[in-house]
Amino acid sequence: MPENNTTETPYTALGFYHKISQLRADTWNALKRDLGILIRLEEENRVKNLVKSIEIKLTRLEIIEDYHAFPSKEDFRHLWTLFQRGEYTMLDKVVRRLVRALISESYRRRNVDLSETDAGAEDMENRDALNQLRRGHPASNSSAQPYFELLVVDNLSNQEEEVVREAFHNMRRPEDRFVYDVVTVKSFEDALIAILVNPNIQACLIRYEFPYKSKYNLSALRNYLEGLSENELANHSEAERNILLSSMIHELRPEIDQFLVTSGDVEATASRDIKHFNRIFYRETDYIEQHHTILRAIDNRYRTPFFDALREYSKKPTGVFHAMPISRGKSVTRSHWAGHMIDFYGINIFLAETSATSGGLDSLLQPYGPIKKAQEYAARAFGARSSFFVTNGTSTANKIVVQALIKPRDIVLVDRDCHKSHHYGMVLAGAHVSYLDSYPLNDYSMYGAVPLREIKKTLLAYKRSGQLHKVKMLLLTNCTFDGIVYNVRRVMEECLAIKPDLIFLWDEAWFAFAGFNPTYRPRTAMNAARTLRNRYRSEEYREEYAAWKAEFDQLDPEDEATWLDQRLMPDPDKVRIRTYATHSTHKTLTSLRQGSMIHIWDQDYRQKVESAFHEAYMTHTSTSPNYQIVASLDVGRMQAEMEGFELVHSQVETALSLREQLYTHPLLQKYFRVLKNSDMVPAAYRESEVESFYDPVTGWNKMEEAWARDEFVVDPTRITIAIGNTGVDGDTFKNEYLMNKYGIQINKTSRNTVLFMTNIGTTRGSIAYLLDVLLKLAKEFDYQLEDSSRPERTIIENQVHSLNHDLPPLPDFSRFHDAFRPSTETSQGDIRCAYFLSYDEENTEYLRFDNGKLQAQMRDGRDVVSASFVIPYPPGFPVLVPGQVISEEIIHFLQALDVTEIHGYRPELGLVVFTEEALINPAAG
């Protein structure tokens, strides 16, 4: 077998980790193609070149397959033997069979013996491939045992590896709920790379002693192994090394069940900090006990308490003498006219439709059984202390959290361009709102996110005015619709240094998937809360804080720069971690429409919030929630725990493939420019100085660096494309070109951009179709330009210039009118007072800005004050809120908009504003 050439290509060194599954599939297919050509060739020079190409592909695949159970190491030795003997015809047959097994995933359902290459074996593989195509039908795989792989970390010889693998194979029984295979690795580094490149690994058995270094140059690990060295690891005892590896595995993939096999003092080991191990085995423990323990752990994640209960309920013969004629399908099965509803949906959805909370089911409003258990599992999956299901969307989830935490006149710092539900939540709660401005991206008519400096500056203003105690919450969107992601941990840490009990509400409606990827996870609210809580409890942090505080105390505390120009650290004796996150589960994970969750990591929840939270939950939750949505949230959580890592990784891969083509294709670049990290995050917020995650030579190898260090980063699965060069605005491009012509659906546009999002359901075929459509459109724009007359060309050029250059600056939040400002020293406004003042028509009037009437009033010195929310789509955030003074910049922006949908604005009447009399004494109104 040839030596592994670790310097041959970046691929061999796994530098292209982000696209490893695509690399794996493409290399196997290329190997199959080369072998097919080779066995038909006679020309010696071409044969020699192909043989070399095949050797390179086998070498590359051997590294990747070292971390997978199928094909096994023994299978690969068989491939090398055939290659070295020159038995290319037989090698071709074996590789074809292997590729079919990988494509059909038949290795998940039965043992695949690559030495069997007869027609019968080939027919079986073809049947497996056909079944794979039929997987959309539940009957095709409902009875199959789910498959996973067990990682065994131990420095074993080839023969010992086969003994271990065979021992676990012999434990398998037909009645087992799951079936699994074994992957063995020999080193600390190999264990980490295995869990990164092999999503099938669901359990890990760490055994005995093993070296630190891998035999491969694993560049994909460089960010995860920072600060570790072989010499440092050599100074650790066996137990310490095992615990360190376990901790790193948990950080990368917390869902993996871990077990320790030790030959040392098992009782002493058990008394150490081994929180990430499910169980410790002594070396004499037999394989059957390990086998059943592993299966039990997998089953604990695989359970779907409410979905299982609902399925059981649907099988019961029940007499319904209650509401809902559609329950059990009675009103449609007996209908002469509505039977096509059952034809479309199937009977099960009706059998499971009920308003019952007994008979094995549960109440969402006051859960005690399977819903309670399902929510506990959700908290485990998303790293929360408590989680709650919401069946009417994240808009409602946001209002629940705000109502539970905010009392009238509490000050809340709010991202001004957040979702409208937050603004309405402020109205309902009676909050005094202090709006924060995001940095603008004027060239693309969109906002980024709120700089940390802006947040700190606002908090310090409240501190100087003696009102910091009134500030209750900071509310931010992570990630934004356009994919801007905060450094959540840093925001929380520095804000807590100013106000140690500040509550954080992170709207992660578009970020529910992020907890299942090691690069994304650290920038999620729940992970940051847990990390900071553990950090502040450690002695290491106390020492670090004492040193920082001693240096900080030497500076002038009255100088704002003292607080703004350095990284702040909170006092560990005062800080309280109080964090809430809302997820639109249905947007980025598996759930029916409006399925959302609330996740809580609040040290004071039990003492201060629980009662109010349940009241708020009761206020906004229907007494007749849709059980299908609840069940889908339960299943979605299970899927995220079992295969979220694989699905999210695939989502990222497809996004990177799309970006790569758009970055490099000349014709696509002419009309469609993908916005890079540097386009959407100004240099001031990019400490890493990474401008793009992609480099044509080294591939996608800069993403982790930016995500680890920068204040803001761009989620690569959200691809914003500037289309100004087409001469077509975003709304027209979305509707007339993408949807009407090609059936491609997108959501977000700006005047000169469109946003494409990949998700866990996006396939490589979908990406190929999108690229084909964009190429067709690019050619269409080329033809249009070539065939146009001089006047037509001038029109197109003017449209292009307008979309690329005639873009009005995005307006900042102006200010609340003094009538709605509780304090002249600070910026917060009483949005509730303004909102309800507009209910009396005599307090409002309409002014049009298209005829200059409103502007004339402003020139005469009048403060014209909005009496409603004004929300254009796009961009979809309030340009005006009740009580806000209308500025010239806002009017200029509204005049430049070319969208047809503006909520709160009636073109024939104008903007609704407060009369001057209403502003004299608004409280009386």
UniProtKB/TrEMBL annotation:
Pfam families: OKR_DC_1, OKR_DC_1_C
Superkingdom, taxonomy of origin: Bacteria
Domain named Orn/Lys/Arg decarboxylase C-terminal: residues: 860-899
Cofactor: pyridoxal 5'-phosphate
Entry keyword set: Aminotransferase, Decarboxylase, Lyase, Pyridoxal phosphate, Transferase
GO molecular function terms noted in the UniProt entry: carboxy-lyase activity; transaminase activity
Residues of the Orn/Lys/Arg decarboxylases family 1 pyridoxal-P attachment site domain: 304-529, 579-764
Family: Belongs to the Orn/Lys/Arg decarboxylase class-I family.
Name recorded for this polypeptide: Aminotransferase class I/II-fold pyridoxal phosphate-dependent enzyme
Organism: Vreelandella azerica
